[in-house]
Amino acid sequence: MDAVIRTERLTLRPFVEDDADALFDIFRRPDVARWSGTGEPMTERDQAVQRIGRFPTRAGDHPATGIWAVVDDDTDVCRGQLMLVPLPPSTGVDRADIEVGWHLHPDVWGRGYASEAATALVERGFAAGFEELYAVTDPDNVRSQAVCRRLGMTDLGLHTEWYDQELRAFRLSR
């Protein structure tokens, strides 16, 4: 499958180390970091470099999966990250699901970038043969939940099957 994906306004491409400044700028912000991983903002650029280095492992080995830089075609600036990746099951849970997810810079919130980019990854996932895609959000992350609904995903309520925590889960079937 193509490594680069184009939408009407965006280019989704693999991250390179030169994207570390943009990624750091995104995840140093508490209003972004609170919805990701530990919830703690990045404090040093090197954390972004390390995260980029872990992307290939996190993406898994399926040719359709990956983690992409979301680049605004008008400015050629990395505005966020988008992923189609294996969804880590919680301890003791035997599942093998695929997650679509996004983290964008607050400067572009409300412009429809998450929905536009995620739609492209949903299409990629279904074209690759995945029967279902999931998104999981913090129970309080109403902005991401709204994106899930715009994608046509079904709200499954609160679940603990992934990431060893209680999350609001959404599913979209092919």
TrEMBL record:
InterPro entries, per database record: Acyl_CoA_acyltransferase (IPR016181), GNAT_dom (IPR000182), N-acetyltransferase (IPR051531)
Domain of life: Bacteria
Keywords of this entry: Transferase
SUPFAM superfamilies per the UniProt record, alphabetical: Acyl-CoA N-acyltransferases (Nat)
One Pfam family this sequence matches: Acetyltransf_3
Ranges for domain N-acetyltransferase: 10-174
Protein name: GNAT family N-acetyltransferase
GO molecular function per UniProt: acyltransferase activity, transferring groups other than amino-acyl groups
Species in which this protein is naturally found: Aeromicrobium terrae
